[in-house]
Structure formats: C-alpha cells, structure tokens
C-alpha cells in the first residue's frame, strides 16, 4: 500500500517536472499540453487541430526532446506514398557481390511521430498509419515489423485551407485517443511568446523521462481502479452519442448520424485513470470523465447535415450529453 | 505435510473496517434526516389535503373542525416519519452524498465498492486507506446539517395557506354584516352560557347528580368560551347545546320535580292493565246477571225481581260488548291505546305517539258530527272514551307533554258532558297540538323558529340566538310544555307569540290549517289566513335549508312540515 502511494507520488513528480520542462518552451496551451501528456501516459495518440502558427509542431518537438525518445516528423503532402511512411525493401548489393532486399524503415519507426498536416495526404497514405497506430507494427512485403515502444503519434491538422485536403476517415479518427483543439494565446501568453522567441536566449529543454520509464508509468496507470458506478458513467456517455438508443438525448437523436465506438469508452476510462493518478488519487472520478469527454468524443461523433446546417458543433453535443448524464449520476440520497 | 505458504498481506483488510466504522455515524445521521424529510413530505401531503378541506369548509360543502387540520397534519408528519424510518439509506448512498459534500471525488463510494470486491489489490488498498483517512474527524452534524430547502419552504407556505383559509374567514374584515351580527350574538350567547355554567355549578343537587352537574357545567363553560372566541360554528353550537340539554334532563327533573316520559309510560301501562281487568270484570258480571235473568224468565214460578226488556237489552249488550277499548276500536289498533302509548313513550317515539293521537282526534272530530252531521258515538261510548282520555291525561300530566294532558282532559270533560260541539273543537285542538308538537321537533332537543330563518333554543337554559326578524326566533323545544324559561331567550322584541291554532283535520289526521297569530288572545282565533303567511315562512325555511343552517337530521322534517302546510296540498 505504501509502495503504491510512493509510486504514485513519483509519477506525479515526474510528470510535473515534464510539464515544467515543456513549459519552458510552450507558453499557455495548458489544456493541450495536459491532453498530450494524457495520451502519452494512456498509450494513445493525439490529433491536434489548430490554425497554422499556434505551436503545434513546436509542442511535439519539445515533448520529444523532453522524453528522450526517437522522434520522426512526417510532413504529409498529397504525393506522399505509404512506403514513404512505413518504409520499403530496397535492393542492395551484398559484400559478396550478390543482390539482396533490405528493408529500409520509414519514419514511422520512431517513438514519437509527428504527422504534420495529416489531412493533406491521400487516404491511401493516411491508411498506412492504421496498423501502426492500433497494433504498433507495420506489415511490409508480408512481413510484420514491430515498432519501437513506446510508440506515440501526434498528428496535426489545419481546419482552414481545406482545398486539396482529405478528411481523415472515421477509422483513422477513432484511433486517436484525443482530438485537441489548439486555440489562440491570450494577451499575456502572446507577450511571453514574443519575449521568448525574439530575444537572444533560446530556451533549452533537457530530457526528463525515458522510454522505459514511460512504459512503467503506463502500467501503473492501468492499475488505477475504477468503481462500477464511475465506469457506468463512461458507458452512459458513449451510449448517449448513439442516436435511437435509450440513453440518447434529444440533441443526439436530431443531429448525430453515427455515435462513438467502444474505443471512446476505452479512451474515457484510460484518460480518467491518468488524470486520477496525476491528481494523486487512486480512483477515477466523475470529474475525470467529464474532463476527458470533450477531447475523447468530439472526433468520434459524426454529425449529420442538419447539425452542420444549424452550426451545431460536436463540442456542443458533448456538453449536452454531459449535462444529461450528470442528471443521472446525482447522489440518490438527499438530506 | 507440505509447508504452507504464508498468506500475503491484504492491504484492504486493514483499512476497510475503519472506513465502514467511520461511515456508520454518518449513515445514522443521514437516516434521521431522511426520516425528517420524509415526515416533511407526509406533512406537505397532509397540508394539501387540509387546504382542500379548509376550502371546502369555506364554501360550506362540508364541515371540518379546526382540530381536524392539526390531526391530519400530525398524522401526515408521523406517517412520513415512519416511512422514512423503515427505509434506512444504504452505506453506498451515504458515501456518495458525503463525498459530494466533502468534494472527495468519488473516493468514498469507490473505496466502498472496490474494497469489498478487490481486497487484494494494492491500489484499492491505498484508495480505501485514503478514504478512511479523509473521513477521520468528520462530524456528522456538520457534514449533514438540518436543512429542508424547498421542501421546508413549501411546508411553510402550505401552513400559511391553511392558516389563511382557516383563520381569515373568521376575521371581521372578511365577514358580511349579517355574519358579524351573528358572531356578536354568538359571543353574547357564549357569555351567557359561561354565566349559566357558573350558576349550574352552584346548583344544589343530590350527591349522585353532582358529577353530572359538574360535567355539564364544564361542557357549557367550554362551549361558552368557544362561542365567545368564535371557535365553534352555529351548527356545532346547536348540536352541543342539544347534547347539553339532553344531559341536563335528569337534573331538570330533579330540580322541577317533573315526571319523566318513562314514568308516564309506566303509569299508562299500569292503567291499561287496570282498565282491561275492570272491563273483564264488568263483562263477567253482566254475563252472570244475564244468565240469572234468563233463568228467572224461563221459570216464572221462581221468586225474584224480574228485569225489564230494556234492562235485559242493556245487560245483553254489555255482556256481548267487545273487550277492546273505545279508542282501540276507533283506530283499529292491535291493543289498547294506553298500552300502545306506554310502549311508544318508553321508546321515546313521540312522533308516532302524536300521530296516533292525531288520528284519534281526526276520527273523533268526524264522529262527533260537527257541521250538522249526525253523531255516531253513543253516550256510553263517549263515556268510555272519556275515561280513556282521562287516564291518558293523568299519566301525561306533569311531564313535558303537560299541555297535551290538559288538552286530553278538556276532551275527556267534553265527552263526559256529551257536548258534541265542544268534543269536536277539543278534538281539533288536540290534533293541532299534536301536529305542532311533532312539527316543532319535539323530542329532538331543539326547535326551529322560521320567522328568523333559524333559531336555537335550549330548554331550561332558555338561550337562543340568531339575527332573526320576527316571531319564532329563539323558539325552544317543547313549546308550551312549561319547562321553558322564555324570558331568558335571546329574542328580538316583538309582540308576536307562536300559537298553534286548531284547523280541520284530514283523513289521515293531518292538519290542513295552522296559523301563527299576532298578539293572540286566549281564545286563539285565527286573524290572518295561513295561506297569506305561508309563502314567507316557507321561503324563510327554504333559505335556512339552502344555507345549511338547519342541521341535516332535521332538514327533511322541516321540508315535510312545510309541504304538509302548502296551500292546495294535502
């Protein structure tokens, strides 16, 4: 028991150090940084969406430096081919004078992968990531090759300049633990950014966590227990996104074409566990799930035409679902 | 023997009992508060019902005593509390509420749920220990303070509403002038009742009546105070007064030395037996004399006084005469009139007794031959009937039906004199008196005065009230029976007095003419035709009935009474 407490405290300390280290470079974006850290510790991938210039790529790069892990950046373009991502077999002359195929690993063979502007690649190339993201392996020429652990994909996409882009397929989106929205910095944050980036001194970060340590942390996260009634809330949240289901809200029935998959429930619970651990608790709370719901559900809910026509966003829908589920989890006793 | 491996320490086993122990006082507190809230819910339900009842009472749809509300709300609270007591909250529910109040983020409920199912989990152990630690020092009263929120507000609001519905109509501001006058009269009656109660308490009575006297005095005093404070409605006052009147009956008899109806019944029974015996003796003697006369007539050689043919006829008639009494024959009764009257008086069925006398009066009026009709009664029959009437009068004399006894005696005298005209008149008077006594609620303990819409009287006590205008207000029961102190009654000063006037009697003995005279003389002749005053009196009665001023048991009787008086009716 004391050991569990000590390990928890150690994780909290290390994550706090990691956050502080990232904070040397990244100004503001607390929610995004926290979301990315949850994805790292929860063994998931993150999709960052924001207009150009908000520091998405900088965040991923800084995180990679802090984690002391192999970092790869893939700039997705329309002419990018799957082989450019996963690698290919090339013919190579052997020292004996013969010829042999040699597998040339693509950039996917890294621990932290930055898939920059992922929606600019064709669906064929995008789908090259499916196996890697789900199974942490790639299959080239019939041969399955394991990716290094930890494996973590951070994709970015630009919500504007949609011409010549290919929206991510649902299967691809579902593989991201979180979809994080990067917003504009505030006045103070912008001022700090200016100070840091236009001065003579460039902030330097040092590695705080190693790959094996991250794997240990992930194991610890999975040990955090979740009580049945809390788990039930996660399930209710997911079921409430399914139009026509008994748990669906009026808004869901009206505006949702397809609801979230079971991966959404996994994402909610895993994210809840990470936040519980980072909060120094050994249980997942309703608040953890409430906090995890928007980034975990917003990319998994497919809105219909009516929602788009009326300007209903996925976040508004998730907020409505949260309010509805909140009503069902109030303490039954009133004194 | 294989060496047993030591059981690994179970982290939850240490902290889980502590967690449960610390939850226990919280659960007790929550249970008590839940029971209180449940009681409040019951109270709210009872208040809603009470408010509906109060509203119905306000609209005079039904009568509700003020303490019904208290009882109903009390019962609602008690029932709700009991329901709350039999439904103790689960520890998990208490933990949920406690962590909600303490902002513990599901630590307690998770620890409770997981501690039981995963006792070997290290993380669960840490969770349970953490939860138990956070409950240390938590004071149940501070965590679960007594607060009722909207439920309490609703309870208060409904209490206020009920108070308004029950109390505001009692305030003069919301009352009509008539009601205020009525209340003032009731207050005055209340004051008088209190004084009467005091007098009654001082009344020297026998030892065995003392307890009754004190009890009645206490009841009257309480009623008087209630009337003064306006805590009792007129109908209730009437019923309570009637009850007090009934309770006062023995005392009054003791005090005035009056005979009770039961005594009169006993006397009648005895008289009936004596008459029957006497009649049997007379018949036997006549039969014997007749046989002797016949024997003498068959044997002219025997000495002895011979009877004349008229004497023989008379003896024959006497011997063959029916053993039935004259009244029994006239009314086709199963048994002797005195015996029947004795039974009815013993049962206090005065209405039936008066109906029989009314029928007798009707028959007698016809058979006495008024209006030039030949009389049907022979002098002997009249004498026999006079004897019966005299016995009846003797038995009723000194009771509440003293006036009836006087009328019967008058009839008996007229029959004895053979004055047919007077017989018919006395019979009419008897019938009218019977109708009047029956119609005025004889035996009910209270009477009605229709001139005032409604009046209340109390025999002996002589109290009556009402904002009436005209004769009849404050009329007491047994009018003319002699035990009413009318001087004490609350009457509007008037020179009119209620007097029953004889009228023609119908086939069934029903009275077709009754009149209330203004400034009557002793002879009691009608000065105003009844059909002229009937509409006013009937209207007043209908008004009283509509306003429910007449108690339910008497309404039908009042209706029947006026129906029987309706001009052109039967």
3D architecture notes:
The complex is a heterodimer of chains A (335) and B (570). In chain A, helix 10 (228-239) packs across helix 12 and helix 12 (262-278) crosses helix 13. Helices cover 48% and strands 15% of the residues of chain A. In chain A, strand 3 (87-93) and strand 4 (99-105) form a beta hairpin. The mean pLDDT of chain A is 90. Chain A is built from 15 helices and 11 strands. By secondary structure, chain A is α/β, with parallel strands linked by helices. Chain A folds into 2 domains: 2-200, Rossmann fold (3-Layer(aba) Sandwich); 224-328, Magnesium chelatase subunit I, C-Terminal domain (Helicase, Ruva Protein, domain 3, Orthogonal Bundle). In chain A, the strands form 4 sheets. Chain A has a 5-stranded parallel beta sheet. A two-stranded antiparallel sheet of chain A has the order 3-4. By secondary structure, chain B is mainly α. Chain B has 3 domains: 11-168, no CATH class; 176-256; 261-439, no CATH class. In chain B, 65% of the residues lie in helices and 0% in strands. Chain B contains 20 helices and no strands. Chain B has helices at 11-58, 66-85, 91-102, 107-117, 122-135, 140-143, 149-167, 177-202, 207-229, 234-256, 261-298, 309-320, 326-331, 337-346, 350-367, 379-396, 402-417, 420-439, 530-546, 552-565. In chain B, helix 3 (91-102) runs antiparallel to helix 4, helix 16 runs antiparallel to helix 17 (402-417) and helix 17 runs antiparallel to helix 18. Chain B starts with 10 loop residues before the first helix and ends in a 5-residue tail after the last helix. The chains are: A alpha/beta (335), B mainly alpha (570).
Give a summary of the structure in a few sentences.
Helix content of chain A is 48%, strand content 15%. Chain A is α/β, with parallel strands linked by helices and 335 residues long. Chain A has two domains: 2-200, P-loop containing nucleotide triphosphate hydrolases (Rossmann fold), CATH 3.40.50.300; 224-328, Magnesium chelatase subunit I, C-Terminal domain (Helicase, Ruva Protein, domain 3), CATH 1.10.8.80.
């Amino acid at each position: 028991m004391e050991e569990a407490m000590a390990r928890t405290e150690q994780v909290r300390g290390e994550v706090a150090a990691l956050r502080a280290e990232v904070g040397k470079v990244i100004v503001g974006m607390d929610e995004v940084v926290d979301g990315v850290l949850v994805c790292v510790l929860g063994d998931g991938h993150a999709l960052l969406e924001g207009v150009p210039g908000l520091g998405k790529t900088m965040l991923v790069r800084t995180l990679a430096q802090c984690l002391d892990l192999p970092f790869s950046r893939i700039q997705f373009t329309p002419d990018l081919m799957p082989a450019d991502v996963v690698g290919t077999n090339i013919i190579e002359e052997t020292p004996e004078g013969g010829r042999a195929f040699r597998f040339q690993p693509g950039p996917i063979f890294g621990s932290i992968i930055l898939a920059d502007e992922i929606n600019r690649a064709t669906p064929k190339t995008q789908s090259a990531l499916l196996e890697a993201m789900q199974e942490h392996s790639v299959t080239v020429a019939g041969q399955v090759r394991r990716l290094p652990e930890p494996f973590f994909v951070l994709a970015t996409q630009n919500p504007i300049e949609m011409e010549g882009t290919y929206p991510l397929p649902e299967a691809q989106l579902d593989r991201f633990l979180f979809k994080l929205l990067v917003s504009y910095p505030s006045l103070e944050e912008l001022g700090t950014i200016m100070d840091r980036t236009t001065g003579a001194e460039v902030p330097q970060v040092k590695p705080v966590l190693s790959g094996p340590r991250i794997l240990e942390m992930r194991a610890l996260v999975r040990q955090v227990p979740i009580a049945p009634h809390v788990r039930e809330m996660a399930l209710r949240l997911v079921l409430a996104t399914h139009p026509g289901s008994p748990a669906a809200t009026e808004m869901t029935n009206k505006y949702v074409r397809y609801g979230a998959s079971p991966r959404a429930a996994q994402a909610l619970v895993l994210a809840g566990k990470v936040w519980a651990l980072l909060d120094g608790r050994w249980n997942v709370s309703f608040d953890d799930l409430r906090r995890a719901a928007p980034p975990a559900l917003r990319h998994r809910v497919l809105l219909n035409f009516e929602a788009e026509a009326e300007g209903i966003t996925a976040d508004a829908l998730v907020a409505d679902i949260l309010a509805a589920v909140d009503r069902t989890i109030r303490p039954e006793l009133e004194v | 023997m294989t060496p047993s491996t030591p059981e690994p320490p179970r982290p939850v086993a240490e902290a889980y009992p502590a967690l449960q122990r610390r939850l226990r006082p919280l659960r007790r507190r929550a249970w008590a508060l839940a029971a209180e809230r449940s009681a409040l819910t019951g109270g709210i339900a009872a208040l809603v019902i009470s408010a509906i009842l109060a509203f119905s009472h306000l609209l005079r749809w039904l009568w509700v005593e003020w303490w019904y509300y208290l009882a109903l709300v009390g019962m609602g609270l008690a029932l709700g509390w009991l329901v709350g007591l039999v439904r103790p909250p689960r520890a998990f529910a208490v933990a949920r509420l406690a962590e909600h109040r303490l902002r513990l983020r599901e630590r307690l409920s998770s620890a409770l749920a997981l501690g039981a199912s995963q006792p070997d989990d290290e993380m669960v152990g840490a969770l349970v220990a953490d939860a138990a630690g956070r409950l240390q020092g938590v004071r149940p009263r501070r965590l679960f303070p007594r607060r009722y929120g909207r439920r309490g507000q609703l309870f208060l609001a409904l209490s206020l509403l009920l108070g308004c519905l029950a109390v505001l109509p009692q305030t003069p501001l919301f009352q009509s002038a008539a009601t205020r006058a009525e209340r003032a009269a009731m207050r005055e009656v209340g004051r008088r009742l209190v004084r009467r109660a005091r007098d009654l308490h001082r009344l020297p009575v026998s030892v065995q009546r003392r307890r009754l006297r004190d009890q009645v005095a206490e009841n009257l005093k309480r009623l008087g105070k209630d009337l003064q404070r306006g805590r009792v409605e007129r109908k209730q006052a009437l019923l309570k007064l009637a009850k007090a009147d009934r309770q006062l009956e023995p005392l009054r008899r003791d005090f005035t030395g009056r005979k009770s109806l039961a005594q009169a019944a006993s006397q009648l029974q005895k008289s009936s037996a004596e008459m029957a015996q006497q009649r049997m003796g007379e018949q036997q003697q006549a039969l014997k004399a007749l046989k002797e006369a016949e024997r003498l007539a068959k044997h002219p050689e025997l000495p002895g006084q011979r009877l004349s043919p008229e004497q023989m006829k008379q003896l024959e008639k006497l011997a063959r005469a029916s053993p039935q009494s004259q009244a029994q024959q006239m009314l086709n009764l199963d048994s002797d009139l005195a015996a029947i009257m004795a039974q009815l008086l013993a049962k206090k069925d005065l209405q039936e007794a008066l109906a029989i006398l009314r029928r007798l009066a009707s028959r007698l009026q016809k058979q006495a031959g008024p209006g030039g009709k030949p009389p049907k009664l022979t002098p002997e029959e009249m004498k026999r009937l006079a004897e019966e009437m005299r016995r009846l009068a003797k038995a009723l004399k000194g009771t509440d039906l003293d006036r009836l006894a006087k009328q019967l005696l008058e009839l008996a005298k007229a029959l004895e004199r053979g004055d047919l005209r007077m017989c018919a008149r006395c019979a009419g008077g008897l019938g009218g008196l019977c109708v009047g006594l029956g119609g005025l609620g004889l035996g009910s303990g209270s009477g009605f005065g229709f001139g005032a819409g409604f009046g209340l009287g109390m025999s002996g006590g002589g109290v009556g009230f009402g904002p009436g205008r005209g004769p009849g207000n404050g009329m007491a029961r047994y009018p003319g029976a002699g035990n009413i102190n009318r001087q004490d009654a609350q009457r509007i000063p008037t020179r009119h007095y209620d007097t029953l006037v004889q009228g023609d009697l119908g086939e069934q003995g029903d009275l077709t003419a009754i009149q209330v005279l203004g400034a009557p003389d002793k002879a009691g002749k009608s000065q105003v035709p009844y059909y002229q005053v009937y509409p006013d009196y009937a209207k007043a009665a209908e008004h009283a009935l509509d306003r429910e001023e007449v108690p339910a048991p008497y309404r039908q009787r009042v209706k029947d009474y006026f129906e029987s008086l309706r001009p052109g009716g039967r």
